[in-house]
Amino acid sequence: MTDSPAELLQHLLEKTRAHGATAADARYEESASLSVEVRNGDLEGVEREESKGVALRAFVGQRQANVSATDLSKDSLDALCERVVLMAKQAPEDPYCAIADASEIATDFPDLDLDCDDTADAAELERRAKEAEAAALAVKGVKQIDHAGANWGRGQTWLAATNGFSAHRSSGSTSLAVVAIAEKDGNMERDYEFRTVRKAGSLPSPEFIGQTAAARAVARMGPKKVASQTAPVIFENRLASRLLGAFIGAITGPSIARGVSFLKGKVGEPVFANAINIVDEPQIVGGYGSRSFDGEGRRVVTTAIVKDGVLTQWLLNGPSAKQLGLDPNGFASTSFGDTPGVSTSNVNIEAGALSLDQLMAEAGTGLLVTDMFGPSLNPNTGDYSVGVSGFWMENGQRAYPVSEVTVAGDLPSMFLRAVAGSDLDIRSASNSPSLLIPGMSIAGT
Q1: Is 95 inside any structural domain?
Q2: 217 beta partners
Q3: Cα separation, 388 vs 377, whole angstroms
Q4: pTM value?
Q5: Fewer C-beta neighbours within 10 Å, C or N terminus of the chain?
Q6: Is residue 210 domain-shared with residue 328, that is, in the same domain?
Q7: Where in the sequence is the domain holding 410, given as residue range(s)?
Q8: Which of 19, 105, 128 is nearest to 65 (CA)?
Q9: Consecutive 10-residue runs of the chain (445 residues): their mean pLDDT?
Q10: How far apart are CA 86 and CA 16, in angstroms?
């Protein structure tokens, strides 16, 4: 490839139109990553990856097709343009497919400072991982470290479409993670700590990462059983974002258009307790999910998805908006070689007034969930169950660790009873403070 990425994309669009496409969009990506893992103070593995590729989508009337390639030679790319148009001509008609109108596309691209200032230095990543592992092993009760690793990654994306949209995005991150295993009387428990940041200076010290993972694992030693009952459940902030994820999935345009959502018909109605607000902010400087445009090139704005408990709108891309007779609202997503889906950017349940200790005091006797696995969700009814472990609470305080517990309820009523804590911790593109849900079914012994 001798052209710049932007020139390459324009060439692909022109060639695709020349083969008979009525519209097209194209994407060029390049990325690099480095990961290091250590074990018992020794370097266990180093992985480096670099990739480049193009993805191309062509429309022929109301038909569309997608192709992608990593061979960037002229002959390969010319064949790609011809092939995608032939595929589109043979695809079934889709009355809802289209690219954004020229009047809808984003033209203002503020600097969101999404690049990482770290470098791909294996020796430095190894140092961090070794120090984190050593800090975890130094905690009394820790038997071994299941994982200690550090990562760096950076990627760039160029996009263009026949509607005039053209943009470039660059982003990167660095991370550190430890999984510690504690042992007592032959029984083992594990827990973890990790952080991913844009800027290396924001990364907590390796000692903090290791010690936190170890302390959490040690605290879980000697778990007891609990009797089956109905009681309050608190989902710790690190896990509560998974409930937020289930909610987001239920309000996406494609789910509503297919009629497979437990929240269909709920726009303009209370879906959370009236103290709950959920806001999507796409243009946070340095944000984990920040973007200046959505996956179809449309403008994005800060959106109060839930305001005082009331659902304000569906999350729409172009096709689902057209199917529902609504206007797209900047929530389209796209990944390499796929048709647009739906996604949020930086979405958070806003912090409430009560600290975690105050939520526990409010709950009295119940369950504090600190780990969960194998959730089951019926998307039509919202019936929800998940295996969990954590701590049994008595008199508003942690009494003892518990494991092999299942909690269950239906998400619509759970959301309406939810109480948000004040401990919102921004660790990813989707975050929640701890959530207290009164009256959940707990299945134990």
Answers
A1: no
A2: none
A3: 15
A4: 0.95
A5: C
A6: no
A7: 223-445
A8: 19
A9: 86 97 96 97 96 96 96 95 97 95 95 93 96 98 97 97 96 98 91 96 97 97 94 97 97 96 97 97 97 96 98 97 96 86 97 97 97 93 96 96 95 98 97 98 90
A10: 10
